[in-house]
Every structure is written in C-alpha cells, then in structure tokens.
C-alpha cells in the first residue's frame, strides 16, 4: 500500500466502497482473525496484485521471493501469448531487454 501511496480511505474509495476504510485499517493492524474471500479479491483488484498471493498471505503460507517471481513470469508469459501483431513485437523487445539486463547482472 505504501508503494502505491494509498491509505485505508483511498482503498475504500477505489473499491467503490465494496470495502470500508475501517475494514482496511483492521486488516492492516491485524485486528481481524480471518478476511473474507470477497474482501481479498476486491483488495487484490484495488492494489493491482495477484489475488492468489493475498490468499497465500492470509493463510500464512509464506512464498519465497523466487517462487513469487516464477509466478509473475508465468502470468507475464500467459499475457504475452495473448498478444498479436505489433503489440507482440513491442513486448518481445521488452523481453529481450530484460533478458540482456539479467545476463549483465549475473556477471556482476
């Protein structure tokens, strides 16, 4: 949330009041034992994160950074496979750039 510069009121507003600011505050301050699935789904949309990741966090299932990155690459790959024409060419350029940068970083 901090990375997005959002507070509980902002999240409530962005959720079209599907989640109250009080609920968000309670979740952030660990004042609830269990968060409803529909609340997690709305939070994921508002925060633009993977709902599965929020569910894992809510269940206390820690995901290692490498596992998290793998899941992100899997999602990116799926999105890439749906692209057509010029959009796919543009995305390929970005993938090439990332590949080169990772190669460079691996040599440091």
Outline of the structure:
The chain has 108 residues and is an all-alpha fold. It has helices spanning 8-14, 21-28, 37-47, 51-58, 65-81, 85-106. The protein folds into two domains: 8-58, no CATH class; 65-106.
Descriptive notes:
This protein has 108 residues and is mostly helical. It folds into two domains: 8-58, no CATH class; 65-106. 68% of the residues lie in helices and 0% in strands. It contains six helices and no strands. It has helices at residues 8-14, 21-28, 37-47, 51-58, 65-81, 85-106. The chain is elongated and about 45 Å long. The two termini are 32 Å apart. The mean pLDDT is 86.
Give the SSE layout.
Blueprint (H helix, E strand, L loop, with lengths): L7 H7 L6 H8 L8 H11 L3 H8 L6 H17 L3 H22 L2
Helix pairs in contact: 1-2
Which assembly state applies to the chains in this document? single chain
Largest sheet: none
Topology, number of strands: 0
SSE string, helix = H, strand = E?
HHHHHH
Q: What is the averaged pLDDT score? A: 86
Q: Please give the count of helices.
A: 6
Count of discrete structural domains: 2
Shape type: elongated
Class by alpha and beta content = mainly alpha
Distance between the termini: 32 Å
- CA-based gyration radius: 18 Å
Q: Hey, roughly how much beta strand do the residues contain?
A: under 5%
Q: How much helicity do the residues have?
A: 55-70%
Low-confidence regions: none
């Amino acid at each position: 949330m901090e990375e997005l510069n959002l507070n509980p009121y902002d999240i409530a507003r962005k959720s079209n009041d599907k989640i109250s600011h009080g609920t968000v505050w309670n979740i952030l301050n660990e004042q609830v034992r269990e968060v409803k699935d529909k609340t997690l789904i709305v939070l994921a949309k508002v925060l633009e994160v993977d709902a599965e990741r929020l569910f894992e966090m809510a269940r206390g299932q820690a995901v290692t950074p490498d596992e998290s990155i793998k899941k992100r690459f899997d999602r990116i790959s799926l999105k890439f496979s749906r692209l057509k024409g010029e959009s796919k060419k543009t995305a390929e350029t970005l993938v090439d750039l990332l590949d080169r940068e990772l190669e460079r970083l691996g040599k440091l």
